[in-house]
Write a structure and sequence with these properties.
The complex is a heterodimer of chains A (about 140) and B (about 120). Chain A is an alpha+beta fold. Chain A has one domain. In chain A, about 45% of the residues lie in helices and about 20% in strands. Chain A starts with a helix and ends with a helix. Chain B has one domain. Chain B contains three helices and two strands. The chains are: A alpha+beta (about 140), B mainly alpha (about 120). Chains A and B meet through helix 1, strand 1, strand 2 and helix 3 of A and helix 1 and helix 3 of B.
C-alpha cells in the first residue's frame, strides 16, 4: 500500500548521498584554494543528515499519519571550524606579513574515506529501490 | 466477506500489506544509515499478523506498530543501524512477499478454475 512511498524514500536518500559526495568532491577540488569570495582560504564543508517523516500523499489518504517510515534529508551544510593550515611560503602573493600562507584544513585521506562511504550508501539505497521495484512488479503479476 | 474472498485471500492480503510495510521500514533504516542519532525500527511480524487476522486491525485503519530494535550495537554518533541485518532482512522480506504473491495467484487460479467449471482457464 505504500510501495511507491518506498521508491520516494530511497530516492530521497540517494539524492542526499549524492549531495554528500558533491560536497566531498568540492572539498578535494579546493584543497589548495587560498582565495574565496568571502576572503581567506576555502573552508572545508560538511553535510549534516537528519531523519524526517515522509508525509506522502498515499499514506495520508490511508490515514497513516503515524506511519513511522522515515526518509532522510540534508539538514544543513556547515563549514568545518578547524583553523586553516599555515605554510611558510614567503613568495606567495597571499602570504601574510610573516610569510605564512593559510591553506584549507582538508585531509585528502579523510575526504576519500567519506567519498567511499557516500558511494556505498548510494549503492545501498539503489538496492532498496530495486527491491521496491521488484515488489511492485510482483504485485502486478497477481493480475495476470 | 464477498463471494470471491476466501479466508485465505484475506490472510494473504494482510501478509502482503505487512511485508510491504516492513520493507518500507527497512528502506527507511537504510536511508538513515548515516544520520546521527537515528535508531533502527522494525515490526514484530508474527504479532502484527495475528493482530490483523483477529480483525482488530480494520482495513481502513491499517496501522502496524513499529518499534525500535533492541540489542543492536550503537555507533559513537548514536546511530545503531546494522548494515548486515537490514540487507538480509531486505532480501528476506522481498522473498516472503514473492511467496505471498505466488500463493495468492494460485488461490485466484483455483477460483477461476471453479468459475470455468474445472476446465483450465
Amino acid at each position: 500500500m505504500n510501495l511507491f512511498g518506498m521508491l520516494e524514500l530511497s530516492g530521497g536518500a540517494m539524492s542526499a548521498e549524492r549531495q554528500r559526495a558533491e560536497v566531498v568532491t568540492s572539498n578535494m577540488a579546493n584543497a589548495e584554494t587560498t582565495r574565496t569570495p568571502a576572503g581567506g582560504p576555502y573552508r572545508r564543508q560538511l553535510v549534516i543528515f537528519s531523519a524526517r517523516r515522509t508525509p506522502e500523499f498515499p499514506m495520508m489518504l490511508a490515514g497513516l499519519r503515524n506511519a513511522s517510515a522515515r526518509g532522510v534529508r540534508v539538514d544543513q551544510v556547515v563549514s568545518d571550524p578547524a583553523p586553516p593550515l599555515q605554510r611558510y611560503q614567503p613568495g606567495h602573493p597571499d602570504a601574510d606579513a610573516k610569510g605564512y600562507v593559510a591553506y584549507p584544513a582538508v585531509n585528502p585521506v579523510e575526504e576519500m574515506t567519506d567519498l567511499l562511504g557516500a558511494v556505498r550508501s548510494y549503492e545501498l539505497n539503489a538496492a532498496a529501490v530495486q527491491a521496491a521495484k521488484n515488489m511492485i512488479q510482483q504485485s502486478l503479476d497477481i493480475l495476470r | 466477506m464477498s463471494m470471491i474472498d476466501t479466508p485465505m485471500t484475506a490472510v494473504l492480503g494482510h501478509f502482503l500489506d505487512l511485508s510491504a510495510y516492513r520493507e518500507s521500514l527497512i528502506s527507511s533504516n537504510l536511508a538513515n544509515i548515516d544520520t546521527p542519532g537515528y535508531r533502527a525500527r522494525d515490526i514484530n511480524f508474527r504479532q502484527e499478523l495475528d493482530r490483523a487476522d483477529s480483525g482488530e486491525m480494520q482495513y481502513a485503519s491499517f496501522s502496524p506498530l513499529a518499534t525500535q530494535v533492541r540489542g543492536l550495537i550503537e555507533r559513537p554518533d548514536g546511530n545503531n543501524v546494522s548494515l548486515e541485518r537490514e540487507t538480509l532482512l531486505l532480501a528476506e522480506t522481498q522473498m516472503k512477499f514473492n511467496i505471498g504473491v505466488q500463493v495468492l495467484r494460485s488461490e485466484f487460479h483455483r477460483l477461476s478454475s471453479a468459475i470455468h467449471e474445472g476446465s483450465t482457464s
